[in-house]
Amino acid sequence: MTEKNVPKATLQRYPVYLKALRKLKSSGVERIMSKELASVVNIEPTTIRRDFSFLGNLGKQGYGYDVNRLIEIFNQQLGMDFDEKIILVGAGNMGRALMKYNKWDYVVGEIACAFDVNPDRQGVRFGIPVYDIADLEKKVPDGCRIAILAISENIQQTVDRLIACGITGLVDFTHEHIQIPKGVVLKSVDVVSSIQELVFETNNLNVER
Question: Which GO terms describe its cellular component (predicted)?
Answer without folding.
Answer: cytoplasm
